[in-house]
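pasting for ref
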Amino acid sequence: MDGLLTLLLWLAALFLVSIYVSWRAGRLDRLHARVDLARAALDGALVRRAAVALELATSQLLDPATSLVLATAAHAARTADAEGREFAESDLSRALRAVVDQPGFHEALGDRVGPLLEELDTAAQKVAFARRFYNDAASATRIARRRILARVLPLAGHAPMPEFFEIDDTPPALG
């Protein structure tokens, strides 16, 4: 009778441990899915910002040199590979600030560029929010993967460790 009780206690403990491990693995899976969704949203926001910047560059509202600088930065951001993406996006942010923050920019263009600048402001804000959301998701996933259980057992499977996306996303002063 004592042997049967000991066996049942061991089986109950094993069952509870397996439930906990399964829950942790499911949580890691959900965190990785959240990172993937956040990355897709960030990529969409970055592409939209580059498209609006390219639209501004080709709008005939800017002088040719400024248009060329902005178009080059927007094109580089859209076509950058994974390694150079952060640098290209930061360069686009700096180019946008250099164009929009020029002395007399708003006065020279007046009402001709209003809707385009509103769209650019919205796109720049979405990039900042999407990057913050993605980095928060990556941070939560990295913390969960550093726990002892996730390191000892392959709970994350073959999913790569999410990396932070760090860019200069300070928006231009459009107001």
